């Protein structure tokens, strides 16, 4: 059995938080540009939706959270239902 | 007090109720592979993870008055061989009934009743409340969620936060199949999302999700293959803290298409960390007819107490669950969808058909076929 390395986990958590900060800063900086509503028609195209519909999104989320230990934890709670971790 | 006039009065005062859409989806999963947590195999070897799942779902979305939108959703899973032969430790497959205590190993039917109510507070702010109940043998679950979104900068920026709570109750089984009362677990999840318009053709979503789980975090019947060839019980910590950070970007393409990219980093205090990359390409062939191709790759490390041959007398945590192992998983698939106007009371009709294959480096393959049908009013 492999033993745990709490120090490595803490370093990775710090890296994750640093990445979140960088991405948030980049996103905030891009927010200085405001695209007026009359120039956002392509963004409103149904092809641009991240999830086609709620049922398709559930299919994907349930599939991955029941088969991958590292799935879940964002958007919807992980671990509910199906007796899985 | 007369009831009929009271109901008539309430019906008069109630805001108008209008169904916006009705959707159905059916998905079939065929899974093949082996894992060390399964006892359905030769002595000292990983066992079968074969199963099939039929998953029908139905959803109705309606609005009540100008401010309230209600979503009612019922997903069902019919799972065959959910944990094949888990009570037949050390015996060849087929020499005994698959399960000593429950029928969940043969066919397990799981269903949920899920409602989401969204209230538009003002032009820029929405509040939401979710309540759901899930039941399967031998498992029940309640979940609640609260969320809020607020738009800024002429809707170029949307900030959202949500908190969810799930409480599960389920039977605890020993490895010999005897029932050992009920156990529970709690899952608390907090999310923060930032959606940002980057250009007239590009939009991005940055999300963080943190989840704390407390209680019995396994299904209690997964076994661990031991170095002497026998099998012992899985032992997991009673707490788990999970962190996930994701970035999604969608770009409109000038030839009537769109490309969507997704990256996700994951880390938890069981020492599992993962990276997931996904690309999704959509092309409009002509009005209403779309084709989609997608590819996903997921790298994951094992949790620190994963083992494929534990010492029989060793204390401490241990698991042989192949889902908690180190692996690389890939998904490739495609879909075709058609949306067309019908006129009259039904405004639009949607149909789609899709296929995906999921395969991973530790011997698991799943074929997924799905079809959807929707009516928009």
Describe the structure.
The complex is a heterodimer of chains A (85) and B (377). With 85 residues, chain A is mainly alpha-helical. Chain A has a domain of 30 residues. Chain B is mostly beta strands and 377 residues long. Chain B has one domain: Beta Barrel (Porin). Chain B has 1 helix and 19 strands. In chain B, the strands form 2 sheets. A 16-stranded antiparallel barrel of chain B has the order 1-3-4-5-6-7-8-9-10-13-14-15-16-17-18-19. In chain B, strand 8 and strand 9 form a beta hairpin. Classes of the chains: A mainly alpha (85), B mainly beta (377). At the A-B interface, helix 1 and helix 2 of A face strand 1, strand 3, strand 4, strand 7 and strand 8 of B.
Pick out its properties.
heterodimer, A: 85 residues, mainly alpha, flat, disordered C terminus, B: 377 residues, mainly beta, Porin, 16-stranded antiparallel β-barrel, two-stranded antiparallel ribbon, 1 helix, 19 strands
Q: Number of helical runs of chain A?
A: 2
Low-pLDDT stretches of chain B are 84-102
Strand content of chain A: under 5%
Q: Could you estimate the helical fraction of the residues of chain B in percent?
A: under 10%
Spatial sequence of strands, sheet with the most strands of chain B: 1-3-4-5-6-7-8-9-10-13-14-15-16-17-18-19
Architecture (CATH level 2) name of chain B: Beta Barrel
Shape of chain B: globular
User: What fold name stands as the CATH topology of chain B?
Assistant: Porin
Work out the helicity level of chain A.
Answer: 40-55%
Instruction: Give the CATH level 1 class of chain B.
Output: Mainly Beta
